[in-house]
Structure formats: structure tokens, C-alpha cells
UniProtKB/TrEMBL annotation:
Residues 1-159 form the N-acetyltransferase domain. GO terms for molecular function: acyltransferase activity, transferring groups other than amino-acyl groups. The lineage of its organism: Bacteria, Bacillati, Bacillota, Bacilli, Bacillales. It comes from the Bacteria. This is GNAT family N-acetyltransferase.
Length: 163
């Protein structure tokens, strides 16, 4: 698994990315996120590619997101991870976990000013919540209404140990 920033060379891979309805209730598609990133340069679309160069994971690293007022860490040193998804053909094979495990290294190379990671998890999405806990994220106890969905704010220091 390797993490790379999206560029138009990966357009076809993104077009063939598949999500099922259970995923779509919690997150936007890669195509929707790329359109948003074109309009907002603080959104960085990240691809998680398998050893065979197949697109398995997608997420956005968002600087100065609309949720910074809730972070317990400084905005300028915190990155917000949003719209994390796995192509349905690669679900439950460890790719989301592996991509988040590689995030520390990716950020240290490409965004060295970032020292903290924050994300929201929809309260009904217990599978994602448990994954984030295993990866060292802490439930801050802050609940946020995000477009009508109740979510929990989770945070992690960039170089805290990963399970």
C-alpha cells in the first residue's frame, strides 16, 4: 500500500472506484471530493494504492476545515481526515487500516508542519470507530451535528504509537 496525492493521471482509477449503499450513507464519493478540492485548495485528495497499483482507499486531508473550532489542538498544526472510504472490492482486507498507519510517514514527508490528526466518525458507524481506536485515535467526547448526522470528534498526535 502506498499513499499518493491525486492528480489527473489517476482519473480512470477514480472513475472505476466502487462504493456500496452502506458506505454512501457515511461519506461522499471520491468524484464528489475531487470536485470540492478543485474549489478549495485546502482539501488534498489522497489515494491508497495496492502493490498492484489498484485504487483501494480514498480520503481527503483538509487543512483549516470548518470543524477547527472543535479541535483541542492548534488549527495550523492539525489536519482533518474526511471521507475515508475503501473500494467495496477491497473491504475487510486491511487496506483502510494500512493507509491510516502510513499517514504519519506521508504527513512527515509532504506536510511537515502537521503534528495532529482529527476526524469525525458517525455515531452509528461502529466499525470505523473501533478501527480508529485501534489506530491510536482518542474519542474527545465532543459530539458534532454534521449535516444532520451526529458524529464524534476523534484526535491523534501524529507520532503517537499505532497498533
Amino acid at each position: 500500500m502506498k499513499l499518493i496525492a491525486y492528480n489527473d493521471n489517476y482519473y480512470d482509477k477514480v472513475q472505476s472506484y466502487q462504493m456500496d449503499n452502506s458506505q454512501l450513507q457515511f461519506t461522499k464519493t471520491p468524484k464528489e471530493n475531487i470536485e470540492l478540492a478543485v474549489q478549495n485548495k485546502n482539501r488534498h485528495c489522497i489515494l491508497g494504492l495496492t502493490e498492484d497499483d489498484n485504487l483501494a482507499v480514498f480520503f481527503v486531508l483538509h487543512e483549516h476545515s470548518e470543524f477547527t473550532k472543535y479541535f483541542s489542538t492548534p488549527d495550523e498544526s492539525t489536519i482533518f481526515v474526511r471521507s475515508l472510504s475503501t473500494d467495496k472490492r477491497y473491504l475487510r482486507q486491511g487496506y483502510a487500516k494500512e493507509s491510516l498507519q502510513q499517514l504519519n510517514q506521508y504527513l512527515s514527508e509532504h506536510m511537515p508542519h502537521i503534528k495532529h490528526i482529527a476526524l469525525l466518525v458517525d455515531i452509528p458507524n461502529q466499525i470505523a470507530y473501533e478501527l480508529y481506536i485501534k489506530l491510536g485515535f482518542v474519542d474527545t467526547g465532543v459530539e458534532i451535528n454534521n449535516d444532520g448526522d451526529l458524529t464524534k470528534l476523534m484526535e491523534k498526535d501524529l507520532f503517537s504509537p499505532i497498533s
